[in-house]
Amino acid sequence: xxxxxxxxxxxxxxxxxxxxxxxxxxxxxxxxxxxxxxxxxxxxxxxxxxxxxxxxxxxxxxxxxxxxxxxxxxxxxxxxxxxxxxxxxxxxxxxxxxxxxxxxxxxxxxxxxxxxxxxxxxxxxxxxxxxxxxxxxxxxxxxxxxxxxxxxxxxxxxxxxxxxxxxxxxxxxxxxxxxxxxxxxxxxxxxxxx
Amino acid sequence: xxxxxxxxxxxxxxxxxxxxxxxxxxxxxxxxxxxxxxxxxxxxxxxxxxxxxxxxxxxxxxxxxxxxxxxxxxxxxxxxxxxxxxxxxxxxxxxxxxxxxxxxxxxxxxxxxxxxxxxxxxxxxxxxxxxxxxxxxxxxxxxxxxxxxxxxxxxxxxxxxxxxxxxxxxxxxxx
Lengths: 194, 175
Known about the structure:
The complex is a heterodimer of chains A (194) and B (175).
Chain A: H1 2-19, H2 23-60, H3 63-70, H4 72-78, H5 87-100, H6 104-121, H7 130-141, H8 148-156, H9 166-193
Helix pairs in contact in A: 1-2, 2-8, 3-5, 5-6, 7-9
Chain B: H1 2-25, H2 30-65, H3 67-82, H4 89-95, H5 99-113, H6 118-128, H7 133-143, H8 152-174
């Protein structure tokens, strides 16, 4: 998909640029953007390393494990069909906590394992189970404590106070996740009553 | 709404303080662990570098040629009705499909309007509460070999919409 999107963006950009007589600007933009991407990555290297470093400390101090266990009551409410202590629940918990802490790359493998376990519980059917729907809706609603990348981008582009959006971001992400939770619970009830 | 700005100032130092403090209490080798974790961060950034270069070049070309302005202009009448800035429509749309393409649009907005402008702040908040719906769904359901996804898309869109509405309202009242 990205192949088409990317190709299309370049083609359209160059054609429109040529038609509007801005081809020299297009030329300059291509070169400066490539350089800019690398400069940005240097800022990001610092921020991401800081964050993943702190998270490694959290892991060794047992904070991440404690959080994973801590959300069990919530999981019982969201996934009434998964038996307690089932591996699916553990993977879901790890995925949610990793996402919450902004460790997206660590979250995805856990999430995929969770899906495989849910598939077993669903007797390998091709129709998604309610648990799968709930898991993905919550996952996509993207509850996140600190959007580390956004802070790095804001710093790179000269924000006076890069972290000033953290409070608003936390409220907004809570709203979207609450909406996702509500939707999942209601949809499950409706699906049952059919 | 001062309170929300206080959260902004204290959140990050508090999280770091809490984690390092607890690490010391648990007698974890905090600095060793930190450097070990920081190494992972390097790998993560190195992995996305090629993607970011490619997409930022594409967005740069679209911006310089005037395509992005044409797009924003074309949808302006509709977005005015919804009280949503037309400049952010490409971002919100792309956000549903690709995280890295959305990132390059975010950077374009920061460059054009500044991260501390209304648009810059709104962009920051929206990006913090949304996910790449279609990408995530296809990867996860492909793993489980599921063909019928039932109400997942509806629920995901509902949550995303709630997040975007909240972002617009919050950005207006907090700053």
